[in-house]
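Our collaborator T.R. sent over the components below with a one-line note: 'Predict the complex.' Nothing else. No constraints on interfaces, no templates requested, no preferences about which chain binds where. So this is a plain run: every listed entity goes in together, and whatever single assembly comes back becomes the starting point for the next discussion.
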Amino acid sequence: MRAGCVPLAQFQDAFARALLAEPAEADDCVAALAAQPAFAVYRNTVMKGCVDALQANFPAVARLVGEEWFRAAAAVYARAELPAEPSLLAYGGSFPAFLARFEPTAALPYLPEVARLDRLWTESHAAADGPVLDRSAFARLAPESLGEAVLEPHPAARWAWFDATPAFTIWSRNRDEAAADGEIDWHGEGALLARPVGAVRWLPIDAAACRFLDACALGAPLSLALESALEADANANLVRLVNALLDAGALARIRLPD
Amino acid sequence: MATALTAGLGLKPAHYAEARDCAAPGLWLEVHPENYLVEGGPRLAWLEAIRERHPVSLHGVALSLAADAAPDAAHLRRLRALADRIEPALVSEHLAWSAWRGAYHPDLLPFPRTAEALDRVCANVSAAQDALGRRLAIENPSHYLALDGHERGEIEFLAELSRRTGCGLLLDVNNAFVSAANLGFDAEAYVDAFPADPVMEIHLAGHSRDPALGERLLVDSHDAPVCEEVWALCERLVARIGPRPILVERDDRLPAFDELLAERSRAHALLDAPLARAA
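Returned assembly:
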């Protein structure tokens, strides 16, 4: 059947399917096209575009597993899940979950978490600009109203707690050429990525700081956010915790409820 | 002509600082807007810093104007926001499709140029121009497949599209050369027949052979310098239609900025030649 003999939508359904299928499986209206050797240019370009984007978006994962292995795994993912939007920076939102299910990486339990950190980096990199709160902001509030005040995380701040693996240490060593090497203590850890100005920066944070930021992101007043931090770690030094987050550029504003 | 742009260069992040600081007269830069649809951060800051010193062109690859579906409204809104921020000298797209039923295929896919397709592409280009508040230049893509359902030639299709929507055209001379070689038509005849008035921009790029896919197949790989045959076609075109903004594209195997700038200087000189000025 000639390609122009079917409605455009039917042609596009068949062509899109043929891009990801074996040539012999092509629908009638594109069978003659899919059988041409040059059809491979389209297959290759689509797959290369997806795999290149994943490699750019998940550089620490690629470095850990090696480029060849990464590209093979990325192709498996891409066949199952093409980009949902044309901004390829956004591609791979479910790649960490894919790695968690992917049989060949079952022996690397930290790999999905490293992928999640790559993803958080991208989110931070592309997030809106915003003001950075400094320590002096607290001095301008009356002490008795401090407990009601709400701290807003910076729009480019991202954080996560990894209970079972030192995912942050592994990630940062594979993200930064100059990072230290040597033995890794095998324990859970947290990560904060922030972009107060220019490029994304990152640092380890503890479970109390992660819980504190979670509460702030939900709009909880400072008194409740500090309680959350103490639930995670009864011995947390709250002043030091808040100052560290301020210094990292993780907080944008402090406001009193209306 | 609405614009006095001469020769420009495709902009890659590896060359941000050199491009910003480059003092070559008339230099303008072209980017794929899809890479800048972010809410903030260093990418956008770089683009704005470059825009402060040079005209910028937005060359889209993802509006999927030849899909049998309206262009994505959310994508158009984000593009509009970027265009309002950058105030581009040119905005362009392709006669191709890529997004289809919620999946984006990172390529410029072919379709049978039927009357139905022409109606659809006209509607999509008009919708995109309205949403963006700007005239689009639509580019001829590279072809690889002998597709037997065409009711119109590509030039006839593009000319009618321009007549019906008021859109401009972008003639990619390398694409014409690659398509001519792959499909067996005459590249000079194609360039000679291309309607002159709507041409808002000319693209030049390098291509490569892929022997794995057939001895004669050329691939529009943007990974090599512009070849002499394409330069000759470009001179022939400019001699006929007069000077238009020329862009040198390079996306892969990126050389040093100066090397690209030298290619761009050749395009700049071509536009300044007596033949071009007499046209």
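Summary for T.R.: Residues 188 and 233 of chain B are 7 Å apart (CA to CA).
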